[in-house]
Amino acid sequence: MSMYHNRWFRCNIKVLFTEKRMLVPRLPDELWDLIHAHGAAAAIQTAFRCHMMRHTTSVEWPCLRSRLAEALSLDDLQRLVRSEHVRREWRREMDSWVSHTDGETMRDIAREVASGLWDPPMERAALRCFLV
After folding, report:
1. How far is it, in rounded angstroms, from Cα 112 to Cα 124?
2. According to the model, what pLDDT value does residue 115 have?
3. Which residue range(s) make up the domain with 111?
4. Same domain, yes or no, for 42 and 63?
5. Residue 95 shares a structural domain with residue 35
6. For the whole model, what pTM was predicted?
7. Which has fewest Cβ within 10 Å: 8, 85, 97, 110?
8. 106 vs 63, 95, 113, CA distance in Å?
C-alpha cells in the first residue's frame, strides 16, 4: 500500500515539475508583462468601483434606490450618481434621504446638481477643462 502511494506520489510530482518546467520558464517576457498589466488593471478597476459605489453597501440603499427610481428620470438619477457630494451625503446621511425626502425634493436636488450648485467652483472648472 505504501509502495503504491509512494509510486503515485513520485509520478505526480514528476508531472508537476515537468509541467512547471515546460510552462513557466518558456513564457515570453511580453506575455508576462501582459499578465501583470491585466492584474494591475483589474486591481485599479476594483478599487475605483469600491470608491465610487461604496454608498451601495448601506442597508437603506435598496429603499433609497427604489424611491429615486420612482421620483426621477434616468438622466436626473445619473446626474445624482455622478456627483461626488451627493454620493458622500448618501454615505453619511442615508436615513435622511430615505425618510425625509419626497419626490419633489429629489427633483429639486437633481436640478441643483445639473446647475452645478453641489460641486465646488474649483471642481466645476476642472471638469470644464476635461470636457472641452
Report:
1. 13
2. 87
3. 58-131
4. no
5. no
6. 0.59
7. 8
8. 14, 14, 10
Residue 11 shares a structural domain with residue 43:
yes
Q: Which residues contact 94 (CB under 8 A, 6 or more apart)?
A: 55, 58, 60, 61, 64
The three grid cell numbers given for residue 95, joined into one nine-digit string: 436615513
Query: How many structural domains compose the chain?
Result: 2
Do 65 and 16 sit in the same domain of this protein?
Answer: no
Residues 116 and 87 in one domain: yes
pLDDT along the chain (132 residues), means of 10: 47 48 64 89 90 86 90 91 88 86 88 84 56 50
> Per-residue pLDDT tens for 72-90?
999 999 989 888 889 888 9
43 and 63 together in one domain: no
Same domain, 7 and 42: yes
Contacts 24+ apart (CB under 8 A), 65-74: 67/98, 67/101, 67/103, 67/106, 68/106, 70/103, 71/102, 71/103, 71/106, 71/107, 72/103, 72/106, 72/107, 72/110
